[in-house]
């Protein structure tokens, strides 16, 4: 059972939208690629967890706070006798440990993921006890990329390599114990404690005027689409999407990038490069959003 699914962070959604409409700065482009690769690795692990048949509860992408410390959990499983926390890494290349330090070959030091779970473990334990849950917690760093190689790893470290993921999940599936209401209460409490906004989220700099106006293909990300009736067709990759879905996406993208701007029919018309009729835009705004004001001062929230 999945209590909380993973979704792109606002920061990643924003960078993706900007990347399709303007040239990102080198710093923002690097951050975008880093976040996107991490998200894809986490989503890949989610697909593997979806095949579990044992009794369990999945919670993905948790952002929690305890005693002033904010920490993130990529994936969490609630089992009968324990909680399993996964720190998911989508690293590619050759890596090694040396005296509790973590390096990419030839010798580029990066943050040791074992230290990350080492910091999370006591905080999560304290948080659960504060809310009346005393259940053992098991932590793992799981490397999902098949092109990841690790040298000199000690056998007893809580690391799951790409070739070990399948057997790890098979062992979990051997557990046929049932969950009870306590496990459900625990899952509900964790989701309730989830923070919707990260204090570490970075805000890229951009101006409305420097952005391309038009409709972006939902598949390839290019602005090579045409509208025919209630369908939007991409001339580059042949992707087809319903017009209503495309309009809603355009509006949500506009609201994400420009939260202080009023959403009006004319604003969305300009944002889509006048590719979609005013009638269709007005219809979707009226159907899915709340109308404010009247006549020429009408806007939607």
Keywords:
301 residues, four-stranded mixed beta sheet, six-stranded mixed beta sheet, 2 domains, Trna Endonuclease, Chain: A, domain 1, alpha/beta
SSE layout and pairing:
Elements: E1 2-4, H1 10-21, H2 26-49, E2 57-66, E3 69-78, E4 83-89, E5 93-98, E6 101-104, E7 108-110, H3 113-130, E8 137-143, E9 148-151, E10 159-160, H4 165-173, H5 181-193, E11 225-228, E12 231-234, E13 240-242, H6 243-257, H7 265-271, H8 278-288, E14 291-292, E15 299-300
Parallel strand pairs: 1-2, 4-8, 5-9, 8-10
Antiparallel strand pairs: 2-3, 3-4, 5-6, 6-7, 11-12, 12-13, 14-15
Helix pairs in contact: 1-2, 6-8, 7-8
- Strand percentage, roughly? 15-25%
What oligomeric state do the depicted chains represent? single chain
CATH architecture of the largest domain: 3-Layer(aba) Sandwich
By DSSP (H or I, 4+ residues per run), the number of helices equals 8
Number of domains: 2
Pfam family, one: NERD
Organism: Allobacillus saliphilus
Protein name: NERD domain-containing protein
InterPro entries: NERD (IPR011528)
């Amino acid at each position: 059972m999945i209590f909380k699914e993973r979704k792109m962070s606002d920061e990643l959604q924003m960078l993706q939208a900007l990347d399709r409409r303007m040239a990102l700065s080198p710093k923002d482009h690097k951050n975008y690629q880093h976040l996107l690769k991490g998200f894809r690795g986490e989503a890949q692990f989610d697909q593997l967890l979806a095949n579990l048949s044992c009794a369990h509860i999945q919670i993905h992408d948790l952002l929690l706070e305890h005693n002033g410390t904010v920490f993130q959990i990529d994936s969490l499983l609630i089992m009968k006798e324990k909680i399993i926390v996964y720190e998911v890494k989508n690293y590619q290349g050759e890596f090694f440990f040396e005296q509790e330090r973590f390096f990419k070959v030839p010798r580029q030091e990066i943050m040791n993921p074992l230290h990350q779970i080492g910091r999370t473990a006591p905080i999560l334990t304290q948080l659960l006890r504060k809310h009346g849950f005393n259940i053992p917690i098991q932590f793992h760093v799981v490397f999902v990329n098949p092109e990841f190689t690790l040298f000199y790893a000690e056998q007893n470290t809580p690391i799951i390599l790409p070739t070990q993921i399948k057997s790890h999940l098979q062992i979990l599936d051997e557990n046929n114990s049932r969950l009870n209401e306590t496990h459900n209460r625990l899952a509900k409490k964790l989701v309730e404690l989830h923070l919707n906004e990260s204090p570490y989220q970075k805000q890229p700099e951009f101006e409305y005027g420097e952005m391309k106006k038009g409709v972006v293909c939902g598949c390839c990300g290019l602005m090579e689409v045409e509208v025919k009736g209630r369908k939007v067709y991409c001339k580059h990759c042949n992707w087809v999407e319903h017009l209503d879905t495309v309009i809603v996406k355009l509006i949500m993208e506009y609201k994400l990038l420009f939260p202080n701007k009023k959403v009006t029919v004319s604003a969305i018309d300009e944002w889509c490069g006048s590719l979609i009729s005013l009638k269709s835009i007005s219809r979707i705004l009226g159907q899915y959003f709340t109308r404010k004001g009247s006549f020429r001062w009408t806007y939607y929230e």
